[in-house]
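Forgive a beginner's question, but might I ask you for the amino acids of a protein and the tokens describing how it folds?
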Amino acid sequence: MFYFSSVSVNLVLSHIKIVLMETSHPGNIGAVARAMKNMAMSNLRLVSPKIFPSADATSRASGANDILSKAEIYDSLSDAIADCQIVLGASARDRTISWPELTARECAEKYAGLEGALTTKVAIVFGRENSGLKNHELDLCHYLLRIPCNSDYSSLNLAAAVQVVSYELFIATGQREESTIGDKDADPLASQKQMDLFYQHLQQTIADIGFLHADKTQSVMRRLRRIFNRIELDTKELDILRGIFRYSQNHNKK
């Protein structure tokens, strides 16, 4: 997988167009815009939407108004994809004639995760809310795009389908946003020497409070070591635990 800077990622995803066919409910257009912006996508094309622009679309966009304001409207699918080199039609329905298929992840790896994708203009077409894409519309597509899901209930709403595909595209670019919430990595991991002192203190504490029997000391300590080694304690956590040990030892003496 190739990894791009945030500027390059936006460039890659700017070559991918989300195309909605004859959307019935304007709120769905707004929800799609929101899903796209979550994943750094910006190009939305609408083919003969029933109602647009609309206050419902703006409301459901929840701040993705820039995508709505730049959305391009076309009279036909042919016009909407005229400048694209690869066209994928999203559909959950089986077709009488077999069609080359890609899953959402395969699509992302093929057209967002490769360096060559920078110059490939891709359209991903989503059909009507109630009936999807028609066969003559699929005739314009290179691939049938599938989103693997529960075979007993495979119908995703429009915004959810766009969200899944957009997520896969975003991840395929290699872009990662590290969480800035909390104190992650604020304190270094405890050294081996610090852990040795910790285990000595732990063993002495559970002996002081009468938890350990002499004949079980070795097996219990081995299991406790396994527990704390899995956790990978940092120095702050180590200090807290040893404080608890000291308190327990003093309380036992009293």
About this structure: Residues 1-7 have pLDDT under 50 and may be disordered. The chain has two domains: 6-172, 192-253. The longest helix spans residues 235-253.
